[in-house]
Amino acid sequence: MVDVTSSGTATVELPADDQILITREFNAPRDLVYKAWTTPELVKRWWSGQRGEVTLAEIDLRVGGKWRYVMVCPGDLEVAFHGEYREIVPNERIVSTEAYEGVPDPDANATLNTLTLTEADGRTTLEVVVQAPSKEIRDAIIDSGMETGMQEAMDALEQVAISLR
Amino acid sequence: MARAATTTDAFNAVAEPRRRQILDALAGGERPVNDLVDLLGLAQPQVSKHLRVLREVGAVEVREEGRRRLYRLNGRALKPIHDWVKNYERSWSERFEALDVVLEDLKRKEQGDGGRDE
Q1: Which domain holds residue B85?
Q2: Touching check for B91 and chain A: CB below 8 Å?
Q3: Is the overall model pTM greater than 0.80, yes or no?
Q4: Residue A155 lies in a domain
């Protein structure tokens, strides 16, 4: 077995005015990717990336069931998302809503996300289509990524500044 | 984010689905306007109007070849859009790098249990 941990970066495309498509390949069979995506204690280990610590991951994996993730970013900023499962095909496909709790009326501004996993030669291609209710909300989601990126850059700068003291 | 006036920036130029179709078609190589007319199923004046908007932001360039005008894509003009998406892409990349680590652990555990041939 060739152990390639780094499988490349995510690609983000904007297939329509109100959509985002995120694609990534993983060096693992899809049942494991599905497991990591749907098991609370595993979600806690990856969902925040480098942005903070996941303090809550609740998953009620059935159609109509709810999920809620909370992460705490540096500076004690709490970022929470929740949603509802609409369609579940184990190891293949999950359709769920995703609402960011930091905006007024989160559920009215929720996106509908479709996760698709396809496996070939023991590797899994993961696709997430984010369907936003409008172009404005789609753009705000991309902008939030920009803010996060800025935040990380500022954090890195702060580390450098501290090391120079 | 701050944007320039209508049709003078790449964001507005690609906001129109027909113009994105034109860009997709030109991504495959240079084409005369008639090809684009056939492909989009629009009248030539409409296609020309879209091409003019794309030319104004530099996303499309044109050259004359005999009596034909050939259009081609200039990806560099779309860089502001790429830059805009890049940070969002980076947060997903970081999230997925953490997921890679979780997956390696799961694979090791399965092998330890003798549950999977690899």
Answers
A1: 79-112
A2: yes
A3: no
A4: yes
